[in-house]
Design goal:
The protein is an alpha/beta fold. The protein folds into 4 domains: 217 residues, Rossmann fold, CATH 3.40.50; 150 residues, Rossmann fold, CATH 3.40.50.261; 91 residues, ATP-grasp fold, A domain (Dna Ligase, domain 1, 2-Layer Sandwich), CATH 3.30.1490; 113 residues, ATP-grasp fold, B domain (D-amino Acid Aminotransferase, Chain A, domain 1). The chain contains 24 helices and 29 strands. Strands 19, 24, 25, 26, 27, 28 and 29 form a 7-stranded antiparallel beta sheet that branches. A hairpin with a 2-residue loop joins strand 3 and strand 4. Bound molecules: acetyl coenzyme *A (ACO). One of its GO terms (molecular function) is acetate-CoA ligase (ADP-forming) activity. This is Acyl-CoA synthetase (NDP forming). InterPro entries: ATP-grasp, ATP_grasp_subdomain_1, CoA-bd, Ligase_CoA_dom, NAD(P)-bd_dom_sf, Succ_CoA_lig_flav_dom, Succinyl-CoA_synth-like. Keywords: ATP-binding, Nucleotide-binding.
């Protein structure tokens, strides 16, 4: 089945099923296997419910059937509520009876034991053999709000919950925690189109479900809760499509700490991918990453309003000067400016607020607002027409008695502008927040949380366009492959500096000029040829980290120095050869690298520090290949990026040269993905007139 066709099938059968069979439906609505039927009935599912139970003629008052074969109607979706050992056979049954999508609830698969892993492998074999698509196993099911389709046993539906519809589609790897998030969101006024839990992802992954959700017209914002990414490249393709459709993906990815990654691994039986790689991939492909449940839902509330930030200039109008200051501080921490209004606009604002207020921005309406609620309307009418405002925040609190009037004024202003607009209402009886939620206006109780949500919206607005990079025409991949082939023939897995540098040279990355020689006399002759200060280094496949044994001597200017250095280096490892290398001009030292990530494949890294790179921990990652513009974005996102402009009167460095080298390295990573496990250019020395690799090391898989 083509991608598009299989997506269409998932949209029709998983997201909008017209009939659902519950296989192993219990008569007892309290049992897990009894809940889906109970929920489908209670929430008023608009399609047909077909309980399958081999021992009963009715289940919870509905006609039941002993097997799928006996069901009297076409079945769009099967919810399999059988123990793990019975699932594979049930899926074969699904295929025999034309059911193409199933949800498998049972636990006891790869997350549980070696025996469970075997069952999961068998399930995957059945998926391949039958083409039946599976959500799960070890999953809580799905909720489609419009149809009230709730093939799930989640406790989120236990109490008397009113399913609230809205523009958000949510996919979670975690079943229980995803349900907590869903329930918390619903209760604070955030509405959904769909919520799905992917569990062990034996077949359908978060990426594939997000992809299907993109094709549902009512879903405008996607939320993802991830523990480990299994098919990173697929996720990025989905992110690319989401970008084209302007449907933002907001993601929480847990497992950033070592302990968190361990827990994620045992929880969903998937590896938590390296966190920095996910971070880089998310930035590169416009996925907005949030740090936890509250930030995710705060951002979701704002994104659901459907407005986009065209800039980062915030105007705040506050009843409390203190709240205004707190908002300004939090805004700054999230990359948002609170610029002082120009004179003319300050004067206009000053005419409608008390003389002891402030019209500068943050605008302080003062506590006079309590006795003069119309002031809010007057001041907001000015704020929504202020041309240099990209974002608006109104900060209020308590004032339960006059709340309706204030909310009306806010609504008038909200409707008068298409700019992102938030309300922070702190304290009080909670009624204003409800009124605002009913009118679709994002409301928060804490300025800091509102600022973080605005920051996420600004970040999304600034995302670079996702590009399709072109391979530079002058790279010589055949030469690079030949280097790898001869290293393999010589039994080398770790490529020494000289050999590794041949790989980067084949991709057009400048490297310091080398001579390979056998002894001190030849080293002196080579140094004379290279003219200028040289380095003498050990070349030995036995010693990848040559400086550890004194195998690197730098800045040698006289023949005597070169001779002595060569002699000492060879004494440390007599079986080695010598590299004589022209010294690079002093400059800023960077590290560039290639890594192979289990989820995202080949990635490149750039950071400050050269040999101090690990200490400084200032590096970023991108998924290969990239073009020079993406490389430039990555370099400019480093904490120390100001160093590129030159420090203490120094000249700016040649950033274009570094970006070009990084983009070329990304093509090497991409083209030799099957061979290269890692490659470090460390350092790449960059000055005003270019960048040059002076050391290099690579490892083959
Ligand atoms: C928490 C997270 O993060 S995600 C969620 C992960 N999943 C879980 O935690 C689920 C854990 N539980 C399981 O895996 C269980 O095996 C379940 C839920 C799949 C099934 O468990 P049970 O409820 O014990 O099923 P049970 O064996 O009682 O069968 C249910 C009904 O189907 C009937 N039935 C059983 N097998 C079949 C069959 N092959 N065909 C038709 N009917 C059947 C039974 O007779 C029973 O009917 P009854 O209760 O009306 O008498």
């Amino acid at each position: 089945m083509s991608d598009e066709h299989s997506r269409a099938d998932l949209v029709a059968k998983l997201l909008h099923p017209k009939s659902i069979a519950i296989v192993g439906a219990s008569n007892d609505p309290v049992k897990l296997s009894g809940r889906p039927v109970d929920y489908l009935r209670r929430f008023g599912y608009t399609g047909r419910i077909l309980p399958i139970n081999r021992g009963r003629e009715t289940v919870q008052g509905l006609p039941a059937y002993p097997s799928l074969a006996d069901a009297p109607a076409e079945i769009d979706l099967a919810m399999v509520m059988l123990p793990a050992a019975e699932v594979a056979e049930c899926l074969r049954d699904c295929q025999r009876h034309g059911v193409s999508v199933a949800i498998v609830a049972a636990a006891g698969f790869a997350e549980a034991s070696a025996k469970g892993a075997e069952l999961q492998a068998e399930l995957q074999a059945v998926v391949r053999e039958t083409g039946v698509r599976v959500l799960g196993p070890n999953c809580l099911g799905a909720i489609s709000v419009a149809e009230r389709a709730v093939p799930t046993f989640t406790s989120a539906l236990d109490e008397d919950m009113r399913l609230r519809s809205g523009p958000i589609g949510f996919v979670s790897q975690s079943g229980a925690f995803g349900s907590f998030i869903f329930s918390a969101a619903q209760r604070t006024g955030i509405g959904f189109t769909h919520y799905l839990n992917t569990g062990n992802e034996a077949d359908l992954s978060v990426a594939e479900v997000l992809d299907a959700l993109l094709d549902t017209a009512d879903t405008k914002v996607l939320l993802a809760y991830l523990e480990g990414v299994t098919d990173g490249r697929r996720l990025l393709e989905v992110a690319r499509r989401a970008n084209e459709l302007d449907k933002p993906i907001l993601a929480v990815k847990v497992g950033s700490s070592a302990a968190g990654a361990r827990a994620a691994q045992s929880h969903t039986a998937s590896l938590a991918g390296a966190d920095t790689v996910f971070d880089g991939a998310a930035r590169q492909f416009g996925i907005v990453r949030l740090s936890g449940m509250d930030p995710l839902l705060d951002a979701a509330r704002l994104f659901a309003a459907g407005r986009r930030a065209r800039g980062n200039r915030l105007s705040t109008l506050s009843l409390s000067g203190g709240a205004g200051v707190l908002m300004a501080d939090a805004a700054a921490a999230h990359g948002i400016d609170v610029p002082v209004w120009d004179e003319q606009w300050q004067q206009a604002m000053a005419e409608v607020i008390p003389p002891f207020g402030s019209a500068r921005n943050p605008i302080d309406l003062t506590a006079t607002l309590i006795s003069d609620p119309p002031m809010l309307r007057r001041s907001l009418r000015i704020a929504v027409t202020h041309p240099d405002t990209d974002l608006i925040a109104v900060l209020l609190g308590n004032a339960d008695r006059g709340a309706e009037q204030l909310v009306d004024a806010i609504e008038e202003a909200y409707q008068a502008t298409d700019r992102p607009f938030v309300v922070v209402w702190t304290g009080g009886n909670g009624r204003p927040a409800e009124l605002l939620a009913e009118r679709g206006i994002p409301c928060y109780s804490d300025p800091g949380r509102a600022a973080a949500a605005l920051g996420a919206l600004v970040e999304y607005g600034r995302r670079p366009p996702v590009s399709t990079p072109c391979r530079p025409t002058d790279v010589d991949s055949a030469a690079a492959r030949a280097v790898v082939a001869s290293a393999r023939a010589a039994g080398q897995r770790v490529l020494d500096e000289y050999t590794a540098s041949q790989l980067i040279a084949a991709y057009g990355i400048p490297r310091a000029e080398y001579r390979v020689v056998a002894g001190p006399d030849a080293a002196v002759a080579a140094a004379a040829e290279l003219a200028g200060p040289v380095a003498v280094k050990l070349r030995s496949s036995k010693v990848p980290h040559k400086s550890d044994i004194g195998g690197v001597r730098l800045g040698l200017t006289t023949a005597a120095e070169v001779w002595a250095a060569a002699e000492q280096v060879l004494r440390a490892e007599p079986s080695g050869e010598l590299l004589v290398q022209r010294m690079a001009e002093p400059g800023t030292e960077l590290i560039l690298g290639i890594q192979r990530d289990p989820a995202f494949g080949p990635v490149v890294l750039a950071g400050f520090g050269g040999v101090l790179a690990e200490l400084l921990a200032d590096s970023k990652v991108a998924v290969a290949p990239i073009d020079a513009r993406t490389a430039t974005d990555l370099l400019c996102s480093l904490r120390g990026a100001a160093l590129f402009d030159g420090v203490r009167g120094g000249q700016p460095v040649d950033l274009d040269a570094v970006a070009d080298a990084l983009a070329r390295l990304s093509w090497l990573a991409h083209d030799l993905a099957d061979d290269l496990v890692s490659l470090d250019v460390n350092p790449l020395v960059v000055g005003a007139g270019g960048a040059i690799a002076v050391d290099c090391l690579a490892e083959l898989g």
